[in-house]
Design goal:
It is a single chain. With 415 residues, this protein is α/β, with parallel strands linked by helices. It is built from 16 helices and 13 strands. Strands 7, 8, 9, 10, 11, 12 and 13 form a seven-stranded mixed sheet that branches. Strands 3-2-1-4-5-6 form a six-stranded parallel sheet. α1 packs across α11, α9 runs antiparallel to α10 and α12 packs across α13.
Length: 415
């Protein structure tokens, strides 16, 4: 462990590589069906998934919506870039075109749906009576509230014409196979991208309860829409009988790949789980106490200890910073460790984007606070400005778009 930073970065790269669609999607495809085949999809990994599907099946007709900067070259599938995490007109227009492609399909047609994290924002078709601007405002307020992703997606489903099984229903009576890359705790297909191909039993009243619980201000049109009949497709709906949903990559697989690499390097590995949720700074404080306790219990000659965790942390916006949960976790962890010798850590989002910042996350060690005074660090944490601080001290992890998304990756190395 002569270079802990390089070691932690290698673990992160291994985790990301394990979820690369080009490495594993083909194994989940059936032989290409005869007749008409249509490829649709949305998410930060969806263009890479379409590229992998075409590598196995040759060119296909279809349309996939991905985040700006995440497009891949496809020969038949059209790739459209749109905004994430707050939807824009490009995503709304592309979603309308996707729904048009699904019109008139027969029971002899086949639809391959490629869904990954980010689809909630990229598949954007507001319910009648709600404008795109109003949906953008609700989405932005949810993102700043600290609400867990599952609760955010409940609201998104009931304000949409495609989420909560509605995209699959639009393709009926065609057969559909939906392949998913999970970025949600628990890997429930109903919550990946707000489940556009999965039935859902929630109600508009549930969505109203989320808005009330997190004090989200909404226009009257949103309240009216959520007081009306549900558009979400229940799991028992016969239009879903010809739909198969399959998770092909998940956080647990990526954590396992990193753990394998760490053990090969001589580490003892402790995994806290792949579905941690909570406020980033609070989880960081808990992890700091755990790392210090583990270090105090170790004896000379013990191998290095690696503490791994995944899931999706949240940030409640209190200041004017960007507020990425991985950077905020790292900053709060550094403050709680207070320069403890022999403890290094990395926290990154596997899609290469932490919150709204084009930065995967950050890395800390015993000397982090020495490069940024404790006062500066505490001030940055108070105003959710960890990204700016880590940028000043060259502690950011920058990957560019990774073209996959299996949620947050956190690793603490205890020497």
């Amino acid at each position: 462990m002569t270079d802990p930073a390089a070691f932690l970065r290698a673990l992160f790269d291994r985790a990301v590589g394990a979820a690369d669609p080009m490495r594993m999607l083909a194994a989940h495809l059936p032989p290409k069906p005869s007749g008409r085949v249509l490829v649709i999809g949305a998410g930060k990994a969806s263009a890479r998934m379409a590229e992998a599907a075409e590598a196995a099946w040759d060119p296909c007709d279809g349309l996939v919506i991905t985040r700006y900067g995440h497009a891949r070259p496809c020969r038949g599938v059209q790739i459209v870039e749109a905004a994430h995490p707050v939807p824009d007109t490009a995503g709304a227009e592309a979603t309308g075109r996707m729904l048009s492609l699904l019109e008139g399909l027969t029971d002899k047609d086949f639809v391959l749906a490629l869904i990954s994290g980010g689809a909630s924002a990229l598949l954007c078709a507001p319910v009648p009576g709600v404008t795109l601007a109003e949906k953008q405002a609700v989405n932005a307020a949810l993102l700043a509230s600290g609400a867990p992703i599952g609760q955010m997606n409940t609201v998104r489903k009931h304000l949409s014409r495609v989420k909560g099984g509605q995209l699959a229903a639009a393709a009926w009576p065609a057969r559909m196979l939906s392949l998913m890359i999970s970025d949600v705790p628990g890997d429930d297909p109903a919550f990946i991208g707000s489940g556009p191909t999965v039935g859902d039993a929630s109600t508009p009243a549930d969505a109203l309860a989320v808005l009330d619980r997190w004090s989200i201000p909404v226009p009257a049109s949103v309240t009216r829409a959520l007081q009306g009949a549900s558009r979400v497709v229940p799991p028992s709906d016969p239009r879903l009988l010809r739909v198969g949903n399959r998770v092909i990559a998940a956080p647990a697989q990526s954590l396992a790949a990193a753990a394998e690499l760490a053990r090969a390097a001589g580490c003892t590995v402790e995994t806290l789980g792949d579905s941690l949720e909570g406020e980033a700074r609070e989880v960081a404080a808990d992890h700091a106490r755990l790392a210090l306790a583990r270090q105090a219990a170790r004896r000379p000659g013990d191998p290095p200890l690696l503490i791994l965790s995944g899931g999706e942390l949240t940030v409640t916006r209190r200041g004017n910073g960007i507020g990425g949960p991985n950077a905020e976790y790292c900053l709060a962890l550094a403050l709680a460790l207070n320069g403890a010798a022999g403890i290094h850590a990395l926290a990154c989002d596997t899609d290469g984007i932490d919150g709204a910042a084009p930065v995967a996350g950050a890395m800390i060690g015993p000397g982090t606070l020495a490069r940024a005074t404790p006062t500066d660090a505490a001030r940055a944490l108070a105003c959710n400005d960890a990204h700016a601080l880590f940028g000043r001290i060259s502690a950011q992890v920058v990957t560019g778009p990774t073209l996959t998304n299996v949620n947050d990756f956190r690793a603490i190395l205890v020497l």
